[in-house]
Amino acid sequence: MPRSLRFVYGDAETPFAMVKVDRGKLYGSRSIETLDAEGQRCSLATLASDGRTLIPNGGTAMAHLSPAGEWLENDTLAAVDGEGHPLAKQPSSFEQPILLEETVDEDHLLEHSIRLTYALEPEGGPSGELGAALAAGTIFTFPFSWRGGFDTDPAFLLQSEEGGAWLLIGDPNTIRLVGLEQAAACGPEEQEEEPEAEMGADLDFTML
Amino acid sequence: MPEINLSDSRKRDAVVKAVATRVRERLRWVGPDGEFPSTHRLLKSTVDHDLDALQERFGEPAAIAEALVSGDPEVDMERFGQSLWFLSRVFINPEEKPVYQVQQNELVFSPSGQVLARRPLVRAEANTNAALPLLWTGRMVAKREAVRRYVFSDLLQILHINGLTYDFLFGMASELAASASLMLVGAGKGGRDPLVFRRGSVPYRGFLEGRVQGDRYALLLHLSNAELKRPDAVAPATPADPASPADPATP
């Protein structure tokens, strides 16, 4: 059963059921089957640096060690942001209504790499004032956390070209405006030009 | 920092740099004494100590349970817990022995999960720094439409490498900034092919965006391999549909 997010906009609270949509659901998917010389199906394992030790899936673990090499239990660690400020634990976004008060423009959304897309369906009929704001092109943003924790992801609520409401969850990117003096170091090589052709009106995403 | 062979609206081309822009570390952990711990990958188990190996050695589950209680046959006290580095990925057969010669097939599934095709795997060749530069296709998409129509899952910033390429990229960014639109760029003849950055990697549609402030610019390459569409709005797939465009078997 799909989970629901509750959005508060104006005086109304609107619950939306969310359904994950990915490339596989739209266009299908591909997987790679690996066979040995006898036609037996193979799986991937990890080989240690000694060249002999084979490690199965789940055969490694991550651990935190102090600068002195001492083991640190996870519950003794505190979360801080990039500037070293302590981070408070955030509740799951499903636990309480999400107040929609911050909007962004298209440039801001384009500064994020979208990792997850969810189609939203208003539960119990049309979404009123919020639906009207989305139809007018408003893009809302809020911090999203599936399970709760110290880290949240930037999320965006908007209406797609075809009309439905969508939740996009992504990662921020750092865009730098660069001047002449900020060149990347490398050696270029010029290539010959090629005539361009007219593209059709629709892009074919199924061929990707 | 990958190189990219890019042309502009006048079909002039140059090899420039493309850098990843994603913010990698948004959260850090601090130890009880205020020190920043380092993260290490440790050995937890090997194929000689997993369930298959214990079944071979002890047989029935009850016998395995008894062995686990009476000793620690699943643990190598000398090695488990050691730090791991320079790890490699290898294929193993059902007997958990490394395999040196493999044949790989590509299975193509429909959106409903049905197998549509099974064929030898052909990896698409990288084409973003090839002899043919990436071309402006002439197809502009307004930013307002683009963010509501495509899922942009990755972003690269294009950087100049010298004074000449600064002028080249600054001009491109200025032109795009004035249009408030993204320009579809493509690889191959006529710019019709999707962008493949490494051999066998995910093909993407590329959209260029320009931003300018004074004499500074940001030229951004947005990558997308999906549309913002509900599944019922997409035509059913055929066996050829999800294939790599570089696969010669695909029309």
Offer a concise description of the structure.
The complex is a heterodimer of chains A (208) and B (251). By secondary structure, chain A is mainly beta. Chain A has helices at residues 23-27, 106-110, 128-135, and strands at 4-9, 12-20, 29-35, 43-47, 54-55, 60-65, 71-72, 78-80, 98-99, 103-104, 112-122, 139-144, 153-159, 165-172.
Work out the helix count of chain A. 3
Distance between the termini of chain A: 31 Å
- The spatial strand order of the largest sheet of chain B comes to 1-2-9-12-11-10-8
Low-confidence stretches of chain B: 236-251
In this structure, how is the largest beta sheet of chain B organized?
A: 7 strands, antiparallel
Query: How much beta of chain A, percentage-wise?
Result: 35-45%
Biggest interface and which pair forms it?
Answer: A-B, 108 and 133 residues
What is the oligomeric state here?
A: heterodimer
Please tally the β strands of chain B and state the result: 12
Determine Rg of chain B (CA atoms, Å). Answer: 25 Å
Instruction: State the distance separating the first and last CA atoms of chain B.
Output: 33 Å
Proportion of helical residues of chain B:
10-25%
**Percentage beta strand of chain B:** 25-35%
Average predicted confidence as pLDDT of chain B: 89
Helix/strand-derived class of chain B?
Answer: alpha+beta
Main beta-sheet annotation of chain A: 8 strands, mixed
Structural class of chain A: mainly beta
| Coarse morphology of chain A | extended
Tell me the Rg of chain A in angstroms: 24 Å
The backbone outline of chain B, from C-alpha atoms, is: elongated
Quantity of strands of chain A, as a count: 14
